[in-house]
Amino acid sequence: MADRSLYEILGVPMDAGTDAIKKAYRKLAQQLHPDKNPDDKQAEERFIEVTNAYSTLSDPEKRRLYDLKSRARSFPGGRPFMHNIVDIFDSLRRSVQYEQDAGRRRQPQRPKEQTWMDDNVRVIPGEDVETEISITLEEVASGCVKEVMSNSRVKTMCVDCKGTRCAEGSRSIPCGACSGSGKVLDFKIGIGEKIRKCPACDGHGLTPLSPCPSCHGTGRVHTGRQVKVRVPVGIEDGQKLRLAGAGTPGDGGAPGDLYVTIRVAKHDRFRRDGSDLYMDHVVPLAIALRGGTVAVPTLIGPSVSVDIPEKIRPGRTVVTVDGGGLSSAMIKRRGDLHVTIQVELPRIVTARGQKLLDELLDELSKPM
Prior knowledge:
Layout: H1 6-10, H2 18-32, H3 41-57, H4 60-73, H5 85-106, E1 129-135, H6 137-142, E2 144-157, E3 172-174, E4 183-188, E5 192-197, E6 206-208, E7 220-231, E8 240-243, E9 258-264, E10 271-273, E11 276-284, H7 285-290, E12 292-296, E13 304-308, E14 318-321, E15 337-344, H8 351-364
Parallel strand pairs: 1-9, 11-15
Antiparallel strand pairs: 2-7, 3-6, 4-5, 8-9, 10-11, 12-13, 14-15
Helix pairs in contact: 2-3
């Protein structure tokens, strides 16, 4: 049975169309399926053989390569039959390489582009990933370390099939696309040939009869992961931090990077402009008229004493606390804290207080 052609296995002629191949496969698959023949080992082997044959002949490119291999096997005086198409083109490559080496021995060497991948693996780098985190103004002032859930599609083993890629109670058969080798050939006349991982079985060499529904037959699932982000002191809203290698893992290549955009939450008291901070502070009427010293809170740390001049103008008088702002990586000194003074008007709760307020207003309204 091993020497029979794929066309003979399906019982169709070599010029059979796609519909005829599909019809023949369905008929044989229904007859030979392991679920209908649980104890028939011969039927099981025939089912695998038919499935592999259909996998190749139903794909135009795979069928073309198979036909090419069949014609190569019939060459007169050729070498014995090679069971894997990769062997055929590997032999061709070695022959061409020998001729090239001989030519180089006869003439000066010159650089030539490498068209074959020596490790038989196509290197695919990982992708960059972006996410956001929100921090407080206090965390901007002191710096912090945050944990973020990266959506970098880290692949972990599927817990349902334990990496077998098969649904419960099912099993795998040799992949028909690569004949169980896990590798296929990219064949491009005039450009070169590259052996790469079989896309049908992802290089496993086996195909699940019934793929695992949780991982869709891949054996792995995509999950997020916790990544620690060190936020420096004085970072600006909208600034991005780059974590090298924390992005999507590559397939033989380097992983991508993770870019974290910082969002600074609005503060209920302080406003920010670069490394400077701004705030409003309310003082009693007596301090506003006579002047004095009041305690002003800071973003982090203890309050500071501030001298208030007499006869201030509410909302316009600004007192500056040197170094009361934020540190910054861009400048060496700390920013300042700018305090706008507001006035708290007293509540009049007695008749005598109201009388005194009226007398004061009359006095203040007299021309100087």
